[in-house]
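hi!! sorry for the late reply, been swamped w classes. u asked for the two structures so here they r. pasted raw, havent cleaned anything up. first the sequence of the first protein and right below it the tokens
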Amino acid sequence: MKPEICFGSAWRLGTVLVMVLIPSMSANSALEQAATPGSDGATQQQMEQGAYLARAGDCAACHSAPDGQPFSGGLPLATPFGIIYSTNITPDPVHGIGQYSFEEFDRAMREGMARDGHHLYPAMPYSAFAKVSASDMHALFAYFIKGVKPAPTENRENNLRWPFSMRSLIAVWNLLYLDGGEYVAKPGQSAQWNRGAYLVQGLGHCGACHTPRGIAGQEEAYDESNGKRYLVGAVTDNWFAADLTADFGTGLSGWTKDEVTDYLKTGRTARSAAFGAMAQVVGASTQHLRDQDLTAIAEYLKSLPPASGVTVLASPAAADTTTGALRAGTVGSRGAQLYLDNCNTCHHSDGTGALRIFPSLAGSEMVNAPDVTSLIHIVLTGSAMPSTKIAPSALAMPDFAWRMSDQDVADVLSFVRSSWGNQAPSVAANDVGRLRKATEVK
């Protein structure tokens, strides 16, 4: 099999999260393991910039299997159309990209076309990578060809249902959905804003997870010009990637720029914590970005307008009522009793948790989100915060699937979503059952 260059984070399996939680095989350490001195026309500055950009693109996450050499591929990626295995992108001349010229590498990254002329599946976010500047693309090529250790790992056959296994269909997909073209700075916006937009829309490919997809798997928007669909939140690999717009109560409206930067740097803030697939992104990618780039990302994200127009307002009076009842042991519902038995120790009677240790449930954007996928998922399977340089403790929430029925999970989450001023719809046991099956939790 011939290698495909890169796969996006849109359809990662849970094994990616395992890579960041197990230090010995983490994607977070993949670049250090892979980096070797190189020259042959590639300057040291290019090599260093390429390594940095590879982190920004989180390339190791998809292209490093738990037991494999960094960038040697083999990670199964679950898509709605079947399983795609990430490919070997080391400079191995047989199974990797060692024979690629820069022009061939550039075409694969921007147009989704492999060296031998076959189309790459858009699980690789080449629609986002098309926005990468020429100089950055040269730096990435220099790093992958001269700075990564070759791995003679054979690529695995994909397991896609017909007709999605027909690569010829990708040509039609490209005609319909691939705009192409490097990022062009927006007049009237600051250099910092444009840098943030470049990173979010390009190498960061944030839309691959946070933007809803259409019937053909295409992102429904690629930048802020379609503010009603861009980064409004979407389900990816049985997690709900959060709304990054200024929607009040469910998006970033209540966040400051410093909180966004802190979250990307450490994976936790006074109001929230990274979990699920986002824990991997912080651990392997964003914590390593330069402060000025994190600030630029925050600048851009905080400029996005509200998308849905939905406003979730917390009620202080309701918060006091819930807190008082729990502290008094007055249980008015089955969900309240389940909360006292299973959640109260960490998240407390007032739902505020513990600062930067146990996330607050009161007023939480994820708790109030219109989609409950992540809430159900984390209760069933648990999750852990990323271990970062600034906050090394990978604090974890345990799984409760073994002790809670579908109705139990629905009841406790319905209680949380209607307590301490939260005003979100209840959770159905049927939804819990579907996700339990999808995550293979018995």
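now the second protein. again sequence first, tokens right under
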Amino acid sequence: MDEGFNFVLQTADPVHVQIERFFRNQILNGKLKTGDRFPPTADLVRQWHVDQMSIQRAMKPLVDEGLIQRLPKRGTCVCRGVSKSVMAILVGARLVDETSHFQRAMIRALESQMPALERGPWTHRIYDGLSALKSQADFQHSVAYENLCGDLRNYPFKGVILIPGAAFDMDWLGPDFSLPVVRYQSSLKKAPSDVVLDFADFGRQVVRFIASRGLKRIVYLRTLTERDTFMSSDLEGMREAARTADIPQPTVWPIPFDRINVAGMEKSAREITLQLLDQWRNEGIRPEAIIVSDDIAARGVALALTQRGLKIPEGLLLATMANEGIDLHDGAPVVRYEFSPEVIMTYLCQILLKRLCHEALDHLSICIPGRLVLNEAPALARSQNIPCLPQKTMKTEAQKTPRDRWTKRTDSKTKLNSVNQQGANSVSHHR
């Protein structure tokens, strides 16, 4: 066998990861040249004493990146000349965590939109778990930093999308890092967000709906903290809607949780709700509606209400902020104000493309609204003329069309300037 294929297992990494790294290094170092053919997979299996599935998994990302080409009945060959532009995706959460539903939905949205992006073909590489890093020293000793620095030497990176979920300073990458960066929900004052969510509309719409049901006593269980300045508008929206409806201002109770360990949020929300239920029973009065700022926390709240025998929505109405396409089982009908990961990613990609073209952008954040949806409550939905998504008629992700996913979705091929022309209807700007 050609010396370009002399591979030996050496590390504790999964076999397919080692094989992928070996193939990539051989191509990038010039030991395997454009047009060189790979031996048959069966020969590699016998030579390397590995299983066929490991080799297949190792080749897939190389095909996606355009480094190799696999042709039926003709085998695999190197095609270095058609390598794709690479986008680095920095994520605060660990994508393997059960609670990282939103972050995984964002990655899926990016992957579905990449074939249509301009200045392509594109691929991406993900570096997650940044929420646990508190300083530049922490970052420079992390696996994410080691992987990113190594990849910067080997891949044609064009830009970065930052989805942190925590304060992450791009200066930690050093002075030589000069790629265009697009930020989602940044909490750093020196690096404002390019895209934020319209939390004020969440507060307004949910309180308006509750008031339209003739309910007045509202409690807001809030997982957000005051340091997240871009999230403080939810309270402003609720106060405005309460004043307009002439009902008492919602009572706010914080739900403490560890941002690194989001899994504890549901437990914390359940415990606080049980404490509040005891307090309200002793006082002889309880709220008519509870709003929760996170759907994971809402699951804990719904469990506590069910444990105490309260029926939803007959005994108490429950509403939560949520994400489209991510339906956590609450065990009860819940009013949802949904944001679309697909729409968010569309704007992030469009801004990145504008920066790659050196097109002028203002310093205002694009503020994306959501929509009210009643899940598993058809009668309530019909009475309020609000979209209802009963489980029996829900489509799978594979069956959904863009119109199904988001009625206001902007086509990913549309340029950002045309999106901004429609901004008066669907997008507002925040300083």
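hope this helps!! also noticed smth abt the second:
The radius of gyration is 25 Å.
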